[in-house]
Structure formats: structure tokens, C-alpha cells
């Protein structure tokens, strides 16, 4: 019996296959600061989240990297700067299609909703200096990762954990994917919702239990040693004047 797939909607109920959500993520991953914050303001330090996430690994060269929940691909492109092979998976086929167009063609026009029926046209561009020939974008279910993936020096899962139906099952699988000495980076705002996972599956989030960050460390402790943790803010533009500001927990672990 196959496992349930990850939820196919975001926290606002938008389908991951919708044109609107793909456009939001293209804007989140690739838009210039002035396109995200056209009026400036004190939020410049929370932009380019997909780049800052990969910076957490450092710039040491590595053979293989895996990103689970790659969305429209910006972090996978950044991983290719230092990794000879990058496998990037996402459950949303529309996300993978967009990432693949950027990989092969280098640009992708999209229309971003501003207010009501008003929108504005933008173009996402593949970042300069990356290695698209090193990347394979694949549609995949985080609960049923292919058996033939092999092992990796870098594994990234950003803003994925609290969107899975079975996050504990996913964590167990990670121990088989990271090579000894390899690095695992998990970012999450720990926004546990019953629409995504039964409360029995939540990692923390219950009265009288450790925090989600503490519970996650306990679950990973047998296979991984925590290197460090921090808080990483990011800003997602939803419309012309509405944004989502989030402070994700970021944990970096090394495989024992």
C-alpha cells in the first residue's frame, strides 16, 4: 500500500499546480530586490532565501547533492556551483516544469497577480555562473523517494517538513541518503496543521512536549550530529502589497 503524498496545497489553499502559486514562487526565487520590494523598506536582509539556504553548507566542493522540495529550482542552481551532480525533487509537476525550462532555456516569463484582476509581467532568469548541466529536476514524492537515488554529500529540505503527512517516516529515510561525514540541512517554520498531518505525526507542537527544534534533534540524534542551528527569516510576496514574513528554524547536521 503506497503512502499518502504530501499535501498538494499551500497554507492558503492554493494548489501547487496552480499558475498563481508557480508565479509566486518564481518571484520568490528569482525576482530582483526592487521587484519584490518596489518601495524599499527595512526588509532587504530577508530576501534571496533560496540562496542563503545553500550558503549554510559552505563553499567546499562536493560530489553529489540532493534537494527534496525544490519548488522552482533556485537552490538547486546554487548547489550546482559547488556540487558536481545535483538531484532536485518536488511533488508539484508544475514546479518541476518551470525549473526545467529555466535549466534548459535560461528564462521563463510569468505573470504576477497584483490586486484583483490586475497583474504584471516578469521574467525569471537562470542565475549567472551556475551549472545547469549538473542538475536533474525530477517529480517525486518525499514519502516514496526512489530506491536508486544513492547517497549524497549534501541533502537539503527547506520548508518541507511540516507540509508532509508523515514527517517521521521522511526523517528515517534521510539517514540512508546522507553519506558518512555528509551534511543535512533542514529548514522549517514548524507550522503544524491537521490538514497536512495528523497531530500524532507532528514533531513537537503539543503541550508539555519539547519544542519542535528539540524534538527534531532527538529524532536525528542516532544518525546525525548537530553542527549548528539558527533562525532564517524570509519574505514571500503574495500580491502587490501583501507579504508573508516567516522566521524558519535552520538546523545543520553531519552524518555520523
Number of helices: 7
Tertiary shape: globular
Helix content: 10-25%
Mean of the pLDDT scores? 94
Query: How large is the radius of gyration?
Result: 18 Å
Work out the count of structural domains.
1
Specify the CATH class: Alpha Beta
Major sheet, described briefly? Answer: 7 strands, mixed
H and E order: HHHEHEHEEEEHEHEE
Strand content: 25-35%
CATH architecture: 3-Layer(aba) Sandwich
Q: Say how many strands there are.
A: 9
Side-by-side strand order of the widest sheet: 5-2-1-6-7-9-8
Low-confidence stretches: 1-6
Your description of this structure?
With about 260 residues, the chain is α/β, with parallel strands linked by helices. The chain has a single domain, classed as 3-Layer(aba) Sandwich (Rossmann fold). The chain has a seven-stranded mixed sheet with strand order 5-2-1-6-7-9-8. β8 and β9 form a beta hairpin. The longest helix is centred in the middle third of the chain and has 13 residues. The two termini are about 30 Å apart.
List descriptors.
256 residues; alpha/beta; Rossmann fold; 7-stranded mixed β-sheet; disordered N terminus
Précis, in short:
The protein is an alpha/beta fold.
Which helices and strands, and how do they pair?
Layout: H1 19-30, H2 33-36, H3 49-55, E1 62-68, H4 74-79, E2 83-90, H5 93-105, E3 107-115, E4 118-125, E5 135-139, E6 152-158, H6 167-174, E7 178-188, H7 212-220, E8 224-237, E9 243-255
Parallel strand pairs: 1-2, 1-6, 2-5, 6-7
Antiparallel strand pairs: 3-4, 7-9, 8-9
